[in-house]
Amino acid sequence: MKYIPALNLGWLTPLYDPVMLLMRESTFKRTLVEQANIKNGYRVLDIGCGTATLTILIKKAYPGAEVTGLDGDPKILEIAKAKVEKAGLDIALDPGMSFELPYPDHSFDRVFSSLVFHHLTRENKARTFKEIFRVLRSGGELHVADFGKPHNALMYLISLIFRHLEETRDNINGLLPEMFQNAGFERVEETDRFMTPFGTLSLYRARKAL
Ligand SMILES: C[S@@+](CC[C@H](N)C(=O)[O-])C[C@H]1O[C@@H](n2cnc3c(N)ncnc32)[C@H](O)[C@@H]1O
User: Does residue 98 have its Cβ closer than 6 Å to ligand 1?
Assistant: First the structure.
């Protein structure tokens, strides 16, 4: 099974948070959280939570929500655990694979995922979207931040390099929205785009029908 850790090579994982500063992380993650319209009591899942920066942001913004982070890499979950403890927050952190989610059907009101899909092969992207659809309740929403179709000439030039790295090609070809729809999602939209040194970062929203 192909598994790509946070910075591609496992030994680079401790450098993940400093590298993320280059990605305008706080801006795009804040926008992603704001667009999700989370209410008190909502059950929220962050898939591929990594060092839990987004997971912590969600819990701080919505203390009344029940927040869970999931990641397939036990090493990065250790970093996440230390950050969550330091912040004094009640967040569940679970080991697990995005394409075999260890939760019953209809368990969550919102599912987030940031910078994970470009780590997954096309087959695992499709399996993951189906799993997300399964664990969301009817009317629940998926909120994704990941590399998307280049939106200007500079981002296009950068994409010529980055389309060859990890599993980024389908993202850059703009295929994620179509893949959400194939998994059963409706009202699929790209809600925002950001320039980053690694190419266009797109935010998406999709809904499981009521
Ligand atoms: C680039 S990091 C993003 C971390 C975090 N979401 C963020 O935005 O900072 C990608 C994360 O996805 C995790 N990951 C990759 N493939 C996965 C899979 N199939 N299931 C669960 N986690 C996965 C990696 O271990 C890593 O922590």
Answer: yes
Cα 52 to ligand 1 centroid, rounded to whole Å: 10
Q: What is the pLDDT of residues 28-38, one digit of tens each?
A: 999 999 999 99
Residue 155 and residue 195: Cα distance in Å, rounded? 7
Chain segment 9-19, per-residue pLDDT in tens: 666 677 777 77
Q: Which tens digits make up the pLDDT trace of 39-62?
A: 999 999 999 999 999 999 999 999
Rounded Cα distance, 210 and 207, in Å: 9
Domains and CATH numbers, the chain: 10-207 (3.40.50.150)
Q: How far is the CA of 64 from the centre of ligand 1 (A)?
A: 25
Do 204 and 190 meet the contact criterion of CB atoms below 8 Å apart? Answer: yes
